[in-house]
Design goal:
The protein is an alpha+beta fold and 119 residues long. It has one domain. The protein is 63% helix and 20% strand. Strands 1-2-3 form a three-stranded antiparallel sheet. It starts with 5 loop residues before the first helix and ends with a helix.
């Protein structure tokens, strides 16, 4: 992604990570709702608030990508790597991401959204 400026590269990476964060929060909501917790509401409220923040950021990312005519798509996935294709101003780039790296970054984002909810 060397031909892609750093700002755009950061937005592209958000386009990879944020949908994963949304998926995890949605799954967590289902798990909490189906759990035997005595007081589910506080947990649901925290996850819902974080989910709203992520969704808002994702809307902004999608708007930017559309405005700049940038496309991001997953090409293939195996046990170790996920390959993405980036179309950036008529330039096509394929990039492999190590799945544990993706997981670590998503965990980092989950933490940051929870911190944002509490501040």
């Amino acid at each position: 992604m060397t031909r892609i400026p750093e700002h755009d590269r950061n937005i592209i990476e958000k386009a990879l990570y944020l949908p994963m964060v949304v998926t995890i929060f949605n799954r967590d909501l289902q798990i909490i709702e189906g759990s035997s917790l005595k007081m589910k509401r506080p947990y649901l409220e925290i996850v819902e608030a974080a989910l709203k923040l992520v969704q808002s950021d994702l809307v902004q990312v999608k708007k930017y990508l559309g405005k700049e005519n940038i496309k991001v798509s997953e090409l293939k996935r195996d046990q170790e790597f996920t390959m993405y294709r980036f179309l950036y101003k008529r330039y096509e780039k394929h990039h492999n991401y190590f799945n544990p790296r993706l997981k670590n970054k998503v965990e980092e984002l989950l933490r940051s959204y929870f911190k944002e909810v509490f501040t």
